Amino acid sequence: MLSPSPSLRYHRRIIMPSNLPNLRRLFVDARSEAEESAYSRKAFYNLAIFISSVAVFSLMAQRMASAKTITS
């Protein structure tokens, strides 16, 4: 039995990632419209909370750094 040429092996690797969107579609189809909406809303709120906390910590760090330079 002949082994596939290197170009065919490389071609097979390119085809595999195209199956990933189909996997995502399976998970989406497994949920109802209401469940998908709730899942999306929760993900959005988690992202908004994360970005807000990063902004708050950044502002706190800036104020602490400026307070150190003023007192030094």
TrEMBL record:
Transmembrane segments: 43-61
Keyword Membrane: yes
Pfam family, one: Emr1
Keywords: Membrane, Transmembrane, Transmembrane helix
InterPro entries per the UniProt record, alphabetical: Emr1 (IPR035195)
Any one annotated GO CC term: mitochondrion
Biological process (GO), any one: outer mitochondrial membrane organization
Name this polypeptide is given: Uncharacterized protein
Species this protein is from: Bipolaris victoriae (strain FI3) (Victoria blight of oats agent)
